Amino acid sequence: MKCLIVSDLHYNLKKYDFVLSAAEHVDLVVLAGDFLEISLYIDRKAQAVVVQNYFRRIREKAPLLICSGNHDLDQRNAAGEMCSRWVDRMRLYNVHTDGDSIVVDDTLFSMCLWWDGEAGKKKIEEQLRKGHEMRPDRWVWVHHAPPAGSPTSWNGKRSYGDQELHDWIETWQPDLVFCGHVHQAPFVANGSWIDRIGKTVVFNGGHQLGALPSYILLDTKTSQVYWRGQPGTRCANLGEPLLTAQDWAEDVPEWVFAMCRLEARHLA
Ligand SMILES: [Fe+2]
């Protein structure tokens, strides 16, 4: 299964256009939060309408899994905690979102909400406990914030990671966790787009300026994973120690080249 993983689009419509085009070349699209941008002069309700439309169009091309980020919160729930109702509503359009756990091929994906307090944290714990009970060969989490103490949460000055997520990873040891939130992590010294905590591999594709998002491509059949960003391409094999991660592989598959060509067309 060929997967495209992106986070932190922050209402950059050029970046959404790229994801929409790229969706044709993959079997699954994962968007790990921060769809909207709180600092823009455009009302976030209006932003959400535009983004929901992108989600529907992406969903027409490939299954779409999403989770909320801190820029996506739109109202308080019964517990008095901020939540992303507009993200929840995407379920109506067959987009899998916060609180869902679904099996695609042989992989269980659990999409976690952006937790704002104890009630949100409990919801995630319950979701992960249930996921653990039905766990197939491969279990993947989608959670906006990366884990504390990981290079995927290092912004060049300090760690902005989530200690709860780190503890949940240690408890349940999922196979993969897709995150975002700390934009700088793949671009700064001592940061990274990939990390291993026990048997779990954690990803943060990061966020870069311009019309193209930085993003991750994963082929679950070959276990080969690629990160694309302004500094170039990095790759790793999930079955090998991450220390062997290279700048570029010798035998790059055609679908990854197709993405590179798509980037060039997108910028033309
Ligand atoms: Fe962000």
UniProtKB/TrEMBL annotation:
It holds the Pfam family Metallophos. Residues 1-184 form the Calcineurin-like phosphoesterase domain. InterPro entries: Calcineurin-like_PHP, Metallo-depent_PP-like, UPF0046_metallophosphoest. One of its GO terms (molecular function) is hydrolase activity. SUPFAM superfamilies: Metallo-dependent phosphatases (SSF56300). This is Metallophosphoesterase. It comes from Flavimaribacter sediminis.
